[in-house]
Amino acid sequence: MAEPKYKRAVIKLSGEALAGEESFGLAHATLESIAKQVKELQAAGIQTSIVVGGGNIWRGVAGSQRGMDRAQADYMGMLATCINALALQDALEAYEVQTRVMSAIEMRQVAEPYIRRRAIRHLEKGRVVIFACGTGNPYFSTDTTAALRAAEIEAEVILMAKKVDGVYDADPVKNPDAHKFQQLSYIEALNRGLKVMDSTALSLCMDNNIPIIVFSILEEGNILKAACGEKIGTTVGRDFTC
User: Fold this and answer.
1) Which residues of the chain have pLDDT under 50?
2) Does residue 2 belong to any structural domain of this protein?
3) Which of 78, 85, 179, 220 has a CA positioned 20 to 30 A from the CA of residue 70?
4) CA–CA separation, 64 vs 71, rounded Å?
5) Residue 168: its pLDDT value, please?
6) What's the CA gap between 221 and 147, in Å, rounded?
7) Does any domain span residue 97?
8) Are 30 and 17 in contact, with CB atoms under 8 Å apart?
9) DSSP state letters, 1-19
10) Would you state the pLDDT for residue 242?
11) What value does the mean pLDDT of the chain take?
């Protein structure tokens, strides 16, 4: 096994990725695959935290587009991320990986409240920390949560696990001629409007010089490959050009 390039990482998992091949709900096989890969990271000595989305259950933006109050819709989305976090915790603990769910919205019966110092201490003790309920505020995406938590816990990288194998200049599903980028600078990604992260999250990563690696979650072993610096997916950083 290659030597890990990063010692502390934030994995960003979209809700859609947790749904596997389906468009809704949770795919057991996908949860199991992610749990195996996270265990590999732990075995390699990489301190691992995870930010989960909730789009496989509810998307706040979609609710607001149908006339629902945006803040209310976003709070519902935050609760959806907690469902995903608990499912992921169960999958990880089935593989004997010590896990803590920390929620930005207090719900003590199922999760610890998010406290930065406690989160870092869990990581230092070799536990996987799953961050649920976004930032606890409406109008902020879980992409922004990943960038914020990475800055707070001094993570060295954000591993963006998606259904696609990198960043393209067009939708590769709809356009077979779409060009895949190997490397991108933060500014290029912002200027081109590429869907790496939303602009708030990407700007936060740029301000704190946190590299982002976008890769496919559908191939087992990719999380460890990304954490070891292997050339997979697309890397977004300060001085890259496409």
Assistant:
1) 242
2) no
3) 85
4) 8
5) 93
6) 23
7) yes
8) yes
9) -PPPS-SEEEEEE-HHHHT
10) 45
11) 92
Q: How far apart are CA 114 and CA 131, in angstroms?
A: 8
Give the helix/strand (H/E) hosting 80: helix 70-94
Provide the residue range defining the domain that includes 24: 8-237
Q: Residue 174 burial (CB < 10 Å; 0-12/13-18/19+)?
A: exposed
Nearest to 222 by CA among 37, 48, 47: 37
Please give the pLDDT value at position 241. 52
CA–CA distance, 155 with 194 (Å, rounded to integer): 23
Structural domains in the chain (count): 1
| CA atoms in the 13 A half-sphere facing the CB of 107 | 18
Residue 199 lies in a domain: yes
CA atoms within 13 A on the CB side of 99: 24
| CATH code at position 13 | 3.40.1160.10
Angstrom distance (rounded) from CA 237 to CA 54: 26
Note the pLDDT tens digit of each residue in 135-144. 999 999 999 9
* Sheet of 8-13, strands arranged across: 112-113, 99-103, 128-132, 47-52, 8-13, 157-162, 212-216, 234-237, 183-185
Nearest of 50, 15, 43 to residue 30 by alpha carbon: 15
pLDDT of residue 19: 85
Answer whether 232's CB lies under 8 Å from 159's CB: no
